[in-house]
Specification:
It contains 14 helices and 18 strands. With 529 residues, the protein is α+β, with helices and mostly antiparallel strands. A hairpin with a 2-residue loop joins strand 8 and strand 9. The protein starts with 17 loop residues before the first strand and ends with a helix. Bound molecules: flavin-adenine dinucleotide. Flavin-adenine dinucleotide (FAD) binds next to helix 1, strand 8 and strand 16.
Amino acid sequence: MRVTTDTADTDSIHDLPLHDLFVIGGGINGCGIARDAAGRGLKVMLAEKGDLAQATSSASTKLFHGGLRYLEYFEFRLVREALVERETLLCAMPHISWPMRFVLPFHPAMRFESDTPTSRILARVMPWMKGRRPAWLIRLGLFLYDYMGGRRLLPGTRTLDLTRDPAGRPLKDDFRRAYEYSDCWVEDSRLVVLNARDAEARGARILTRCEVTGASREGDHWRIALRHADGRKETARARALVNAGGPWVGEVIGRLGIASTERVRLVRGSHIVTRRLFDHDRCYFFQGTDGRIVFAIPYETDFTLIGTTDREHDGSPADAACSDAEADYLCAFASRYFARPVTRDDVVWSYSGVRPLYDDGAKSATAATRDYVLSLDDAGPVLLNIFGGKITTYRRLAEAALARLAPHLPQAGGKWTAGVPLPGGDFPVDGFDALVAGLARDYPFLTPFHARRLARAYGTEARALLGKAQKPEDLGRDFGATITEAELRWLMRHEYARRVEDVVWRRSRLGLRLTPEQIAEIDRWMAAA
Ligand SMILES: Cc1cc2nc3c(=O)[nH]c(=O)nc-3n(C[C@H](O)[C@H](O)[C@H](O)COP(=O)(O)OP(=O)(O)OC[C@H]3O[C@@H](n4cnc5c(N)ncnc54)[C@H](O)[C@@H]3O)c2cc1C
């Protein structure tokens, strides 16, 4: 790519290489589309204004899930697609994704003030049930959940006697029965980085800390103006443009000077993290009186993740933060279930993200559709705007995006991503324990925590990171919580990490374990490197 100093005076702009596809945004949707397109033989370029996954894609609940809640809104297409997708993704990335069981406690006296299509029908045909979600309705939902998605690997629903099952122990005595069903966990920001790496391995050019400041149609292509974090300017050319700006999708449309009637609805979701609240590896699915649901999930071995909220977000998506009111709401919500109340004193960290939902005019943030909408503007070289989407459906969204672009990029190959592992994921779906055992055998100086952490983060590539190391010192300095110079080098060389927050809050969540001094040391080391 030729670098120009100013996009306004590029007299020889047509000498710049012409890409087939330019992607704006390095969240999961942008990176998923870039990977898919590069694998189809297209010449692809992607620009992310900050770090990969710096926005919504590192602030999710981190579930590959069908979305049990969406059944109440009759979002059958979305739920089915997501349910089927869970196992496809699990097989492609058995290091960063794994099955989880969810415990949904039930109490016949529970009351719900929800205004979903299901509760409205229920109120009409069974008025005496108003405000209740009967057991049979939950069981029916779970039955659909079990069978809509062609489950092969994940176990189905079962009923739990909470008076005997260990899952009942941390809960209040009122809860005597629960349903347990399956979904999957995913390390969201690692998913994004691995998609970007794979896209690059297939020929894509990935630019981080590089903002798209404008783009205009010129003949048969787009001319795209870029500004790097160090102030350098660059111009690119591409036949097709994808706007995967997430919460900034509307702002990007504005920068392109395009009139659009479509609107994004910004809905903030916050999570709190506490020290571990229970001693088993299952999650809880709590239903609230306001019709919302909140998860309590084992997190990073020693912590519990509780979320999420659903609030309209005003202002810049970059300013999203968990407010005191949201933290109180989550504590109160969880305390209706846990025997020991959860208080603000238990909270060790919180994070917040903004859902870039398609504005379908729904009354509340909770009711707004979670399905994705792809809007194509072909008044000249083509532009595809992406609204909404789930982490779970990113691969299907990428396929759908390329199907929409296909008439404009006839040289593109066909679908290929189903069943193709992401970097480090080339081992059997049930092979994780064997992978950890192999690392522990060949690198006996690793603590069990360290070996497991590396296997989860890097899968089969952990060996490339560890190289010929025979003793801890061979990995260089240990900055704390098992993060070493060797790992920092890997992250900077192969995973686009530039700053300390890229490493301790996105490529890993070791920020939860490191002291401020240790984080400052990593920062100094990275700046010098
Ligand atoms: C609280 C919460 C919980 C969620 N939980 C789940 C879950 O458990 N499971 C699930 O499947 N989904 C979940 N989701 C949904 C999922 O996280 C999002 O749908 C998804 O991350 C959106 O990805 P994206 O790529 O569209 O947006 P983003 O990740 O926000 O990426 C957009 C990127 O574009 C970049 N950008 C913007 N403008 C420019 C520009 N001009 N130049 C260059 N770059 C630019 C931004 O910096 C940003 O990194 C959750 C969402 C939230 C908020």
